[in-house]
Amino acid sequence: MSLPARIQTKGKTSWMKHAAPFVKCNFDAGFQENNEQGMGGWILRDHYGEAKAWGSSILDHVITPLDAETKALIVAMQQVWIRGYKLVQFEGGCEVLINAINGKSSRSSSSFSSEFTKSVFQADSCNQPQWLTNLLCKDLQS
């Protein structure tokens, strides 16, 4: 996935047209340090600039502006995905996040690993919620 930064023109931020068949999803976030809460917003436009969908979300457990921007992107990605869009260009104004996603971060991913004791991948089939496990087992016994 490639995330272009916003285009700066004489101190103003302007929307940049993109090529069909892609749609563009612009996202942004706000952050309130005093209550660890943020607000994220997104808008999805076609290559003519016509809005196709938009929304906003309260972002809980936000400690930094980067947390807010990251969660806003995740919400935008989820919302675009559930609407069936596959060819999407995401655009945001957080240079640190954009660079990290595009592999241009000044902080290498190996430096993140020192902050975790262990990282493990578990397939979803191994992490079923207890209610689902109980329901499946009950159906098998019937």
UniProtKB/TrEMBL annotation:
Organism superkingdom: Eukaryota
Entries under Gene3D superfamilies matching the protein: Ribonuclease H-like superfamily/Ribonuclease H (3.30.420.10)
Name used for this protein in its record: RNase H type-1 domain-containing protein
Source organism phylogeny: Eukaryota, Viridiplantae, Streptophyta, Embryophyta, Tracheophyta
Domain RNase H type-1: 26-110
Signal peptide residue numbers: none
GO MF: nucleic acid binding; RNA-DNA hybrid ribonuclease activity
